[in-house]
Specification:
Layout lengths: L5 E6 L2 E6 L4 E5 L1 H11 L4 H7 L6 H13 L11 E4 L16 E5 L25 H14 L3 E5 L9 H10 L3 E6 L6 H8 L3 E7 L5 H8 L3 H15 L3 E8 L7 H10 L4 E6 L16 H17 L3 E3 L24 E4 L4 E3 L11 E2 L5 H7 L1 H8 L4 H4 L4 H4 L4 H8 L10 H8 L1
Parallel strand pairs: 1-4, 5-6, 5-12, 6-7, 7-8, 8-9, 9-10, 10-11
Antiparallel strand pairs: 1-2, 2-3, 12-13, 13-14
Helix pairs in contact: 6-8
Length: about 425
């Protein structure tokens, strides 16, 4: 397949360009989008300026053109050198993305581990799991929609026999592939086949800094297998390696030792989340941290990050950000920027939402129609949220925090994140 470096798709605010080399999206306003569209049609720069963009000074126009040339957006003939996807079958009044930026796909529910903090109810394969053909069809649909990133997860995705073929199909269709796994089922033979493909990153769970604590969470003998798997991945994979830890009562005292262990394993990034009392983890509700403890963890990790070359990320907590949001409604990115599809084809805002909350199923509807027109996603995007969130200086970056945690704690998708660090700080003061 002839793949281009850049793919541009029209959006309600202008467009998004995906750079397959940088593996990142770049937002552009309506005028820049018009420029790329006319350029892709072969219209000369002089004609584009005189007919469509003459409200700009000639110098500003030339500066923009030179910038586009410097990053490769225009070829030697001054034509946009990429794929242009028009905003089709979309209500222009809908202030939502025409397609998700990223899809998290659970390729199987199967996992032989019995982790105490597992968010899944069962570790057995679901009935009627997606076939290879159904996943291939989904990947093709995502590529045509302009969704350029996909994350494969499980269970453990390496428990699926045709997983390497699934990854290969996604890479060939031009999707940027990430994998989320335990690391325990990656043999050198499998690692060699996967490492030959161009992946964005692989994320591996790592919740205990010692054999005793790790095996307590995941089962006897799992620590040594995990270390072996992580070292194999570090040695053979060229992509970014992320280690992910769930912080809870039994390991909150291990933050420093976890930090040092993960540094020693040469991770490129450490991501941290917090125990959720869902799935099998409901049997261990005493693992849940208090909001004050979560705030303490956040402050501790911030100190670690100030002296570490390794990036430390807390993805599910609200925090100030310099990035401009590409959606404007209340709520976290789930259902606004990305979505989750379980191994039976049910589409949810994210994997932490209960199975009873879903937007549709790709076995009997297209992912594009579910994304654009399902009642669940429409309701999420029309939520007004709460006044105290909208009045907060962090609102533009956090937008009320995690929706799944609101359901878990308050049974209400339209309230504020119960673990909001700003609210915690105000209560303490």
């Amino acid at each position: 397949m002839n793949l281009k470096r850049f793919t541009i798709r029209e959006e309600y605010f202008g467009s998004l360009i995906y750079d397959s080399e940088k593996k990142d999206y770049i937002p552009f306003d309506e005028e820049a989008t018009l420029f790329f569209k006319k350029s892709s049609e072969g219209i000369s720069l002089a004609e584009i300026y005189s007919q469509y963009l003459n409200n700009k000074t000639e110098q500003n126009f030339k500066t923009f053109v030179n910038l586009c040339k410097s990053v490769g957006l225009l070829n030697d003939n001054d034509i946009f050198d990429g794929i242009f996807i028009s905003r089709k079958n979309t209500d222009e009044n809908k202030k939502c993305l025409s397609a998700p930026l990223k899809v998290h796909l659970q390729v199987t529910n199967e996992c032989p581990l019995k982790c105490r903090h597992c968010s899944q109810v069962s570790r057995e394969p679901r009935e009627n799991e997606l076939t290879f053909e159904e996943i291939s069809h989904l990947i093709s649909d995502l590529s045509e929609m302009g969704t350029k990133e996909i994350c494969f997860s499980g269970g453990d995705p390496f428990c699926r026999e045709d997983f390497i073929n699934i990854v290969n199909i996604a890479v060939r269709r031009g999707l940027s592939v990430s994998i989320s796994c335990s690391g325990l089922f990656v043999s050198r033979a499998i690692a060699k086949k996967i490492s030959e493909l161009d992946l964005k990153q692989i994320k591996i769970s790592f919740d205990g800094s010692s054999e005793k604590s790790y095996d307590y969470f995941r089962g006897k003998g799992t620590y040594r297998r995990a270390i072996r798997g992580i070292k194999t991945i570090r040695e053979m994979f060229k992509c970014k390696m992320v280690l992910h830890s769930v912080i809870m009562k039994p390991n909150i005292g291990e933050l420093l030792s976890l930090f040092r262990a993960i540094q020693k394993l040469e991770a490129d990034e450490w991501t941290v989340d917090f125990f959720r009392s869902i799935g099998s983890a409901t049997s261990h509700k005493n693992f849940a941290l208090m909001p004050e403890e979560i705030n303490l963890v956040r402050r501790t990790l911030k100190k670690f990050s100030e002296t570490s070359e390794m990036k430390i990320k807390i993805p599910s907590l609200p925090e100030i950000s310099s990035k401009i949001s590409i959606y404007s409604n209340f709520g976290c990115p789930a259902g606004n920027i990305y979505c989750y599809i379980n191994s039976a084809g049910f589409v949810k805002p994210c994997g932490f939402m209960p199975d009873s909350i879903f937007a549709g199923n790709i076995k009997n509807d297209s992912i594009q129609n579910i994304w654009l027109n399902s009642k669940l996603f429409s309701d999420l995007r029309s939520s007004l949220g709460v006044d105290k969130c909208r009045a907060c200086g962090f609102y533009k970056s956090c937008r009320g925090g995690c929706r799944a945690r609101c359901i878990e704690n308050n049974k209400n998708i339209e309230t504020n994140d119960p673990f909001c660090f700003m609210a915690i700080s105000k209560e303490k003061n």
